[in-house]
């Protein structure tokens, strides 16, 4: 029987992707589900529907609620949380690195994603600065310079662009989004358990 | 010790308010939490942020997802669900009746709210038609004509308008929204359990 798999679509600027990224590994493993990282850029998708920044900036009441909601979620999970001074931060370079790592199925890709989310939402670091991404790679004891160079080739840039276009074709409108092998879509950190259960049962 | 209470803010056009309305009574009772009905109109609040109809109409990909998501939620709860042919439907008259019933703390108010949601999202009936609201009241064996007359006085209309303005002041931007006595806000059917737990602990 093939191993059930779940596609995890995420954007590094997304608040709710932080608890999802921190939880998905252990939950999926416990259910025998393989997680496939699908980093993408939410910006072009939001722009296509007329939004030039995060909805949490455009709609301040919703934004105020979301920060408090994520704070509560993290407290419940005993996850450190610190509201970043700058929001949203561009996750472009981080997404290129994550794309490269996941495409090559490297052992560091998942650790890298978690580390970026922690830097942004727990440690008050600026993930839109290349020094931070380099430092994260160095902390993971991988070849930071090689990876950064490969992440910024036209090939990787184009592939991340194509993955974002694919997200849009799939009907993805936010992050995190989970998609099972039979095409069932789940949106939001609070749908993670449901997505894993669906992936397991559908396989 | 006073009984902990939870304000349940809902709009009859709201899809996710349907499962919330069907679940809240039993869950709150099991936790010793009193539910206070707070019907309001989401339309004026959405218009104030530039939306002239449901976001599920304005953003079709999000809308497509939401219908599927609610269908799954209802299946999980063994709640009948049928996507209405007309959406969104004006819940104005129903909200006036619900306001009247909840203000007067009548025994039929909660049954009325559940019946309206079932009519709309389970039975394919048109809640934007006064005949449907009358029929629902008749099915509840209350004095439909008296209630409909009282619901359409200027006094009731003004009070519902004031309640909607109050919702906006509280920062409510969607439905269902739950607010505890210490002012903690929870948005969405999937936050109902968290809201009840918070209400219980905070009291």
Structure keywords:
homodimer, 203 residues, alpha+beta, Glutaredoxin, four-stranded mixed beta sheet, 9% strand
Task: Please describe what this structure looks like.
By secondary structure, chain A is of the alpha+beta class. Chain A has one domain: Glutaredoxin (3-Layer(aba) Sandwich). Chain A contains ten helices and four strands. In chain A, strands 2-1-3-4 form a four-stranded mixed sheet, sandwiched between helices. In chain A, helix 1 runs antiparallel to helix 6 and helix 7 packs across helix 8. The longest helix of chain A has 18 residues. At the A-B interface, helix 4 and strand 4 of A face helix 4 and strand 4 of B.
Short overview:
Chain A is of the alpha+beta class and 203 residues long. Chain A has helices at 17-30, 42-48, 55-58, 60-77, 92-103, 109-121, 130-139, 144-151, 154-169, 192-202, and strands at residues 5-10, 34-39, 177-180, 185-187.
């Amino acid at each position: 029987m093939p191993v059930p798999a779940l596609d995890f679509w995420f954007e590094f600027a997304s608040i709710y992707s932080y608890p999802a990224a921190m939880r998905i590994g252990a939950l999926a493993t416990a259910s025998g589900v393989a997680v496939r990282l699908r980093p993408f850029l939410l910006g072009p998708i939001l722009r296509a529907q007329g939004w030039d920044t995060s909805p949490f900036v455009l709609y301040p009441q919703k934004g105020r609620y979301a920060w408090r909601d994520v704070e509560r979620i993290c407290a419940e999970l005993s996850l450190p949380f610190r509201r970043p001074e700058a929001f949203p931060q561009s996750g472009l370079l981080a997404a290129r690195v994550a794309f490269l790592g996941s495409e090559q199925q490297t052992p560091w890709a998942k650790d890298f994603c978690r580390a970026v989310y922690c830097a942004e939402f727990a440690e008050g670091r600026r993930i839109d600065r290349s020094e931070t991404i380099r430092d994260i790679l160095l902390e993971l004891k991988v070849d930071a310079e090689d990876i950064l160079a490969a992440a910024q080739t036209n090939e990787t840039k184009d592939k991340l662009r194509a993955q974002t276009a694919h997200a849009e074709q799939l009907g993805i409108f936010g992050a995190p989004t989970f998609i099972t092998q039979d095409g069932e879509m789940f949106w939001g950190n609070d749908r993670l358990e449901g997505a894993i259960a669906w992936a397991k049962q559908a396989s």
